[in-house]
Amino acid sequence: MRKFSLSKEMYAQMLDGLNNLYFSDKLGFSDDLKFIANDYWLGDTAVIEQLQLRKGLWEVHLIFAYPSAPTRFLKRRITAHASPQRAAQMAFYMRRLAAKDQRGTISVNIDDFHLSLN
After folding, report:
1. Residue 15 CB: number of other CB atoms within 10 A?
2. Which of 65, 75, 63 is nearest to 44 (CA)?
């Protein structure tokens, strides 16, 4: 395995570019995050549970996805368990508690995103 090396000139260009980011980036406005404050859409979301192994624990995440605008979603970490079976059981119950429609009839279709992986 070769050791990574970077020339002094390239390193100087990289530092210069990082220093100039301060001048090229723009600050966001409060209007950019209005969709979080206007949380009316959370009442009609599909709730999707997700299990993720991180640092030896199975984390339970709930994703609240709005079917009318599939790019509008919110993801929250709920809890973590050492056992994957216990985490899956907790995810199932937490999803049912959080969902407006507990039968799961509200859903989000992956085709709504119009993704192209070419």
Report:
1. 10
2. 65
Q: What is the chain's length?
A: 118
The label of the residue with tokens 């984390």 reads: 59
Are 84 and 58 contacting, i.e. CB atoms less than 8 angstroms apart? yes
Entry pTM: 0.58
Task: Name the residue with tokens 């507990």.
Answer: 102
Pairing of strands 57-65, 73-81: antiparallel
d(CA 47, CA 70): 12
First to last CA, the chain: 32
- Give per-residue pLDDT as tens, 31-50: 766 766 677 777 778 888 88
